[in-house]
Amino acid sequence: MLGIKQVHHIAIIASHYETSKTFYCDVLGFTLMGEVYREVRDSWKGDLALNGEYTIELFSFPFPPARPTQPEACGLRHLAFSVADIDLACRHLEEKGVRCEAIRVDPVTGKRFTFFSDPDGLPLELYQA
What is the mean predicted confidence (pLDDT) over 69-74? Predict the structure, then answer.
């Protein structure tokens, strides 16, 4: 048996490291645990935590290719974050200048959800748990 216990982290490549770091920390509420500039790669790497848990590796690389389509490109489709109050969360995002799609209801679970994007257009979801 493989023995996977949980998802350890999610790696995201940003086109502009400082913009994405501000978005994930100041808008979404992640905490910057540490960061390092890797000169040989001309790349920043930031370690972001959510509620004290290491969650996202935020990278920058020179000239990363754009996402081919959204959200149905092959590979990662979106990241979903659980929230207790989706209306409150959407108001917070919109106050920070982040546009959310209309809130929908999952026909299978009956739970409310919406989508928005990070500064590079990565689809993100809020899901009311």
Answer: 67
